[in-house]
Amino acid sequence: QMADPFLYDTGERSHYGCLGHEVQIDYLKAYICRPSFSTDKAVIVVHDVFGWRFPDIRYIVDLIAGHGYITICPDFFKGTEPWKSTDHWPDFPDWMKNHDPMKVDREADVVLKYLKEQCGAKKIGIVGFSWGGMAVHHLMLKNPQLTAGVSLYGRIIRDSDERYSLLNPTFFIFGEKDHTISLDQIFLLEDKLKQYCKVPYKIKVYPGQVHGFAQLKPEDMKPDDKPYIEEARRDMIDWIKMFV
């Protein structure tokens, strides 16, 4: 029985006024934010278990758009209920069965098509948090259209050595104090990538940080964590800028 992994209190969050707007893409709703100038570069953001409407994720979408990317967060839960902080933790495994981060290929294709045909995107990266980090790891093994990926504290699935043959550059961000992902797992990931991965990759562990640390809005950060949160975001953006 795991402790509740969401160490940040999702109830006590400041309100966030978004810069983007919602769109309908085929059967998916999505939140999109565009930079102030025209660009052919885009980033897909994959939300965590709290879904595409969660203020922290919209803040991240706006942040990435501010760096010059058409940035979009589709509803990967396809209109079903996201996990809520009031839900009961013992029900989480059942909820996960119906929200499998490895079953995101169709949604990714719909969004890629939209970005290319409707937004004129030529290079597209992807960034995902927690549940979304797992989805990014999966998609970077499967979808060559994604130029680069950043997986933030996605649990590491070790079902086969095929999980390390990444198609394009991928950056894995972890918190040192994340009790859903042990440092042993991270070291193993590093070993396996050294063995099997043919493209640039990077793994970085941020001191003292818990699960979910990198998506906090400025007013919700603790002063001790702030430098690491800002560093993780800079690193995330730098990776995208290097390859997308």
Automatic annotation (TrEMBL):
Q: Name one GO molecular function term.
A: hydrolase activity
Spell out the subcellular localization from the entry. Cytoplasm, Cytosol
**What are the transmembrane regions?**
none
Domain Dienelactone hydrolase: from-to ranges: 29-242
Question: Could you name the domain of life of the organism this protein comes from?
Answer: Eukaryota
- Which is one Gene Ontology cellular component term of this protein? cytosol
Q: Which family does it belong to?
A: Belongs to the dienelactone hydrolase family.
Protein name (Swiss-Prot/TrEMBL): Carboxymethylenebutenolidase homolog
Q: Which organism is it from?
A: Tychaedon coryphoeus (Karoo scrub-robin)
**What gene codes for this chain?**
Cmbl_0
